Amino acid sequence: MNDFLQLIFAGLFLVFLIYLVGKIVVKPFRLVFKILFNSIFGLLLLWGYNFIGNFIGIVIPINYLTVLISGFLGIPGLILLIILNFILGG
Predict the structure, then answer these.
(1) Is the pLDDT of residue 5 over 60?
(2) pLDDT tens digits for 34-48?
(3) What is the mean pLDDT of the chain?
(4) Which letter, b or e, does each residue of 16-35 get, where b requires 16 or more Cβ atoms within 10 Å of its Cβ?
(5) CA 41 to chain centre
(6) Could you report the per-residue pLDDT of 68-89, keeping only the tens digit for each?
(7) Taking CA atoms, which of 8, 14, 18, 72 is between 20 and 30 Å from 57?
(8) How much is the pLDDT for 51?
(9) CA distance 70 to 77
(10) Rounded to whole angstroms, how far apart are CA atoms 45 and 34?
């Protein structure tokens, strides 16, 4: 009976450790993948805007800062970049 109880506690402890490692290890990877996905989305937004804006002469340079701004903020970020482009005389 004593061995059986130790086996149950060891199993519960193992489940707890797996849960704890999952919380600690998986969350940063989820954040990294979310940032990468949003950055790719921002890059596509900028590329599409520059493709259309090239016909009328309005282009936003594509660099890591503009990609991150449009990636984190999405369409409002792209609008912010367009406004900043007009204000700063880009």
Answers:
(1) yes
(2) 888 888 888 888 999
(3) 83
(4) eeeeeeeeeeeeeeeeeeee
(5) 9
(6) 888 888 889 889 998 998 898 7
(7) 72
(8) 92
(9) 5
(10) 16
**Is the model's pLDDT at 90 over the cut of 60?**
no
Q: Are 45 and 75 in contact (CB under 8 A)?
A: yes
Determine the Cα angle at 55 with ends 36 and 85, to 5°.
55
CA–CA separation, 40 and 54 (whole Å): 21
Are residues 10 and 31 in contact, defined by beta-carbon separation less than 8 angstroms? no
Would you list the domain boundaries of the chain? 24-88
Tell me the DSSP string of the chain.
-HHHHHHHHHHHHHHHHHHHHHHHHHHHHHHHHHHHHHHHHHHHHHHHHHHHHTTTT------HHHHHHHHHH-HHHHHHHHHHHHHHT-
Token pair in block for residue 44: 């596509």
The residue assigned the tokens 């990468």 is 36
